[in-house]
Structure formats: C-alpha cells, structure tokens
Amino acid sequence: MAIDFHAGSNQYSYARRVAHAGWGNFIQQRVDAAGKAIADIGCGGGIYSAAWAGLGARQVTGVDFSAQMLQDAQETVQGLTNVAFVQGDAAATGLADASQDIVFARALIHHFDSPQPFLHEAWRILAPGGLLLIQDRTPEDVFLPGSPEHMRGWFFDLFPPLAAIERARRPPRSAIEAAITTAGFELRPTTTLWETRREYADSAALAADLRGRTGRSILHELSDEALEQMIAYILARLPAGQPIVENDRWTFWWAQKPDVAGNGL
Questions:
Q1: Nearest to 251 by CA among 141, 145, 112, 105
Q2: What angle, rounded to 10 degrees, do the helices at 203-211 and 224-235 form?
Q3: Which conformational region is residue 182 in: left (phi greater than 0), alpha (psi within -120 to 50 degrees), or beta?
Q4: Residues 27-51 pLDDT 10s
Q5: Stretch among 6-20, 158-172, 199-213 having the lowest mean pLDDT
Q6: Prediction pTM value
Q7: Nearest 5°: phi and psi at 191?
Q8: In which element (H, E) is residue 104 found?
Q9: CA-to-CA distance for 164 and 178, rounded, in angstroms?
Q10: C-beta atoms surrounding 2 within 10 Å
C-alpha cells in the first residue's frame, strides 16, 4: 500500500539523513541563498530546510501537511534559529503574499494529479523576481539501469509491477515545463543532478535503511517478505569490500516570477 505520511509508524522516514554537500554545491553555483526568505514546500522531515539554512538563508519556512513529518523536522533542525515550520497544504500554505524570495519543492509534484494548484500558490507567495525551484524525478531519471551507483533501477528489475506504479506517478519533463509556463513563470534551462543520497558503512547499514523503507515511498508498495527479497537481490549485486554509495538522478526545473523592474535572483 502507499505510504501514509501521517502515521507514527513512519516516523523519521524522511528525517534521518542530511543533504549531501554535492547538492549544496550544485545549488550555490546557480543561486545565492544568502539573506533570502525560502519556503520549502512539502518539507517532510526538514532535511532540505536545514540545508537551505546552511546555505545562508535569512529565514526558511518549511510547510507540510503531515503533523508527524513536522514533528520529525523540528528534531532535524534543532538549534537552527532561522528555520520554522507550519502545517499547511501545498496549494494553501498560509504564507503571506509575495513574502518569499525562493519557493522550493523537492519530491513533491509527483504526488499531485495536477501541479497547477501548487504553482498558483507558489506564484502568490513569491515576491516579484523570485525563484521557483522544483526538484523531482522524471521517468527518464527513474528508469535508468540498475547498478551499484543507481540501486533504484534494481527495484523494477525484480518487481516489474513497481515500474507501472512509478511510471503512472512520474510526469515527463516537458509536462512540468508546460505547466510552469502556463502558470506565468519564466522558465530557465532545466538541469539534472546525480545526487548522492547516502553513503553506507557496510551492507548491513544499507539493508537496515531499505528495511525501514526510509525515504523511498515506492517500497511501501511491497510486503515485508517482498522487501526482504529486494534487499537480498540488491546486496548480491554489490561488489564486496567496496564503499556503498547510493545515488539518484534528479531533474531541476528553475523558473522566475517576472519582475516589472527586470530584477531577479
């Protein structure tokens, strides 16, 4: 069954890791977050809210519809004074008009039947000249062959029905680009990033992370027995005695809310 983001049994599913430094370097090469007000929509356990704070944001506001996720997020950012969280919907955040310099949404839009309500809300809360940044995976990202560097590809080799579920929820790159421009944003070139999700000390650490279905909602479609099959399948294909580094390829859509003065981030 699909993941229940509200369930206490899924506590820490999206909290018990930190964003890899490569993600921050990728962002910093393209936008200066210093002194900016940033809304992290669908913030989950606050991993990327903390990352934006580390890039020098003046204020990061994480928004999520799940009280459980927000409870986890508070623990993730403990000690950070420039991060706050509010419970709200992606299409009704409760944030003030034109109050944000950057609106960020990671691994969010594939949960929507249509991205338009979220895009309209992003437009409302962004200041003129502000940046919309969407990070998600397209079918082209997800269905790359399985390998020690891209373990996710092996999910679909072993359990083809997962591929049908994944394909149904992953809009193509062009569809998101069209939705962004229809909402009135000025689209910048779309980019991709191989983001290091996590590095594991050994196969036991990877197995524990998979067994907890940590941060991988597609694995909630598997029974416990099937998940154990998946773990064995993956571990059998990893080179012995080598570091385990899990990567995923992501697509980034960058867009600007027009500023009549011609200014922007």
A1: 141
A2: 160
A3: alpha
A4: 999 999 999 999 999 999 999 999 9
A5: 6-20
A6: 0.89
A7: -130, 165
A8: strand 100-106
A9: 24
A10: 11
